[in-house]
Amino acid sequence: VTIRLADYRPTAFAASQVEMIFRLFADRTEVETTTTLERRAGTAPDEALRLSGDEIEPARVAVDGETLGPDRYAADENGLTISGLPTAGPFRLTIETVLRPEANTKLMGLYSSNGIWCTQCEAEGFRRITYFLDRPDVLATYRVRIEADRAVVPVLLSNGNLTETGDLGSGRHFAVWDDPFPKPSYLFALVAGDLDLLEDRFTTASGREVALGIYTEKGKAGGAAYAMDALKRSMRWDERRFGREYDLDVFNIVAISDFNMGAMENKGLNVFNHKYVLLDPETATDGDYQGVETVIAHEYFHNWTGNRITCRDWFQLCLKEGLTVYRDQEFSADERSAPVKRIASVRGLKAHQFPEDQGPLQHPVRPREYREISNFYTSTVYDKGAELVRMIETILGADQFRAGMDLYFERHDGEAATVEEFVRCFEEAGGADLSQFARWYNQAGTPVLEVKEAFDHDAGRLTLSFAQSLARGSAGTGTEPFHIPVRFGLVGPNGQDIEASPVSGAAIEGDVIHLRKAEETVVFGGLAEKPFISILRDFSAPVTLKDEQSAADRLALARLDPNPFNRWRALSDLVGQALVDATAAARRGEAAAMEPEVADALIASAGDISLDPAFRAQMLALPSEADIARLIGVDVDPVAIHAARNGVVEAVGQRAGRRFDDLHREFRSRADAYSPDAASAGRRALANALLEYRVAATGEAETVAAQYAEAGNMTDRLAALGILAHRLPEAAETSAALADFYARFEDDALVVDKWFAIQATIPREDALDGVRTLARHPKFRLANPNRARALVGAFASGNQISFNRADGAGYWFVAEMIHSLDGLNPQISARIATAFRSWRCFETNRRAQARAALEELAARPGLSTDLKDIVERSLA
Ligand code: ARG
Ligand code: ZN
């Protein structure tokens, strides 16, 4: 069934209050749900009530306390229909269900993870707990009573504030949680078990005392200290930056080891994948620390953008996700380095969102239709959604943007809103017309923006000509011109922006050119000499930029641009082109080479003391093999890409020689204690980037094996292990280090995931053999999402040459694994299957192999809706 935005209708009945009783037993959970319902005005008096349900059965149905006979209701595969309900006024509907959480491998609804009962309801999990109006525009207050054995299940948690606890005799106890804020069912949560707790407090700006708690499996609460710190910083930041305070007496987080996604923003009770809570310098990398900080912030920020104001329907998902990603990006930019954060976000966007937008899984930021909503928690909705919010800020300016956000919070608090309502707040508060801008929500695809420059010496005039175009892609949505905000600067030879007066052309406000037509020009006058043109600063719009800048201009901007993001972009464009050229050379059987000027610019940036180390590490980080494949676009040969990229790293390392040795010596970690702060992490990132070039240049394992053995933290240890495994897979040091790593950390699930992932991504065609063996390893568990992602997901999306093997064996293996996984957890099988989305970019033979594997998979009986949807769209 296809659900369409155009078919949206409010429900026939409204719900106001939900009372739930959960009775937890070792072998089952009994759920009794009583909902106060009422016909909405205009609903016919004989209209039946239709509730959603998924893999449940009604044990009892009652209205106002009276049990209904089976003639009054009918259950089917997708829900329950109840007829003969009161024609007017509120009534109380009670439904009893019996659940088996330990048998729930989909990890949606109520399930059990390492002995902990927990729930995941977004998007459509609540209907696996009880029959309900399980959609985001039905808002009700919840009172939840949980009963369980005190010895086995001492901790009982749900949303809101704890209002009552007590003893039930025979070893059982109960707790009652009251959530005063009306919410949709997807924000419901329950957690129960024998958990450890890390406690803290927070006083809000207006003086509310909030008890903070992070719950973990036994013995692990110490690992939540950094997460707790990040939570308090997030709470303070949202007060300062957006004037948003927390609104309950408690805020709890629970870390769970079996979790489909990163985390979930349930009101007052966030549930997290333990990967985004637990940290220790011995076992977690700098990247893990950043991930925890970001996800903690993201879920906390949802309290206002998602919970207080939720979505009318799932088509509006970007209303909460894009906006909340924008907010967590801004938080990270403020807490760490803004340019480095921006570079990382844009790299992520190009690596994940661009291929999605340019392939068969394309959809607009606000989709028009879906078969399975779980498949729309995508980079387009999240990351491009965040870019759209960022563009609104760029168009309006910081103050008007804040005024628009204030209006949004004020006007829509307590509501289930739409994208139109969101945009209208900025139009009203900012006095802007965003009607053309709103196309960004509805038209899928990455627009191409071409820029041409012409300089008239005698007249002192610079003409910039812009042409935007949008190809119609698989989504089949419109191709009208966008309102594109282009942040820019004209850079003088001394590295300073020149004040140039626009003479004519498109609207310019400050440093932003507002493009609105398919073709437009801007003319600047009063220029004594031709400036360097720094266009699309900070990546002010998610477009593919095509300019005709000379290599000399790019090299100059890589050195001079006062906008750090564009300094990085200038170099990165040169390096990207060099890698595309090197790939073509590799295909002709020639050795990889890089223009000496580009190699020198790369080497110089590593030693530029005016730049902070984290930024320098970004300059040194070459595009991945998948990035290069995207730049090439058609007839891709992954083996040639791999050879070219390796060759370039080696050549740059050799050219740098002593200079990289010295820098590495300067930045490599000393024996002092580990600190996860941004500056220390930046030094480690730079040192490890340098180490990789050195190893590539010399081919010797000794230094890196020594770093592996002596490392005082996981960042340095894992970097060394990665360099060994990926650069020197055959060295004796590599197998020794892999064995040592496993022996050291075999009891830590999150580190074992790293061990699987590093081997899954060894860039050799025969890595597949290793992956097959690992799939039979005693620690491999397909049912654990992190483990499945660490092996199968990492292989499919992170091993270009082995997944895309010419003989198709990588595709067939992944198809087989996905199929096994689909029987357990369709959300994860469908997610991993998206690795096939770029199959049409490859050369003929691989394309044929991928198509055959996908077609064979699509034809198998009994596929989940989730997986069927991805596979069929990929083939369409
Ligand atoms: N709302 C969560 C977040 O982004 C993600 C939940 C996704 N759930 C799902 N079933 N796809 O913070
Ligand atoms: Zn989110």
Automatic annotation (TrEMBL):
Residues 552-876 form the Peptidase M1 alanyl aminopeptidase C-terminal domain. GO terms for biological process: proteolysis. Residues 445-547 form the Peptidase M1 alanyl aminopeptidase Ig-like fold domain. Residues 88-187 form the Aminopeptidase N-like N-terminal domain. Coiled coil: none annotated. SUPFAM superfamilies: Leukotriene A4 hydrolase N-terminal domain, Metalloproteases ('zincins'), catalytic domain. Pfam families: DUF3458, DUF3458_C, Peptidase_M1, Peptidase_M1_N. Its cofactor is Zn(2+). InterPro entries: Aminopeptidase_N-like_N, Aminopeptidase_N-like_N_sf, PepN_Ig-like_sf, Peptidase_M1, Peptidase_M1_dom, Peptidase_M1_pepN, Peptidase_M1_pepN_C, Peptidase_M1_pepN_C_sf. GO terms for molecular function: alanyl aminopeptidase activity; metallopeptidase activity; zinc ion binding. It catalyses: Release of an N-terminal amino acid, Xaa-|-Yaa- from a peptide, amide or arylamide. Xaa is preferably Ala, but may be most amino acids including Pro (slow action). When a terminal hydrophobic residue is followed by a prolyl residue, the two may be released as an intact Xaa-Pro dipeptide. Keywords: Aminopeptidase, Hydrolase, Metal-binding, Metalloprotease, Protease, Zinc. Residues 226-439 form the Peptidase M1 membrane alanine aminopeptidase domain. Its EC number is 3.4.11.2. Belongs to the peptidase M1 family. This is Aminopeptidase N. It comes from Plantimonas leprariae. The lineage of its organism: Bacteria, Pseudomonadati, Pseudomonadota, Alphaproteobacteria, Hyphomicrobiales.
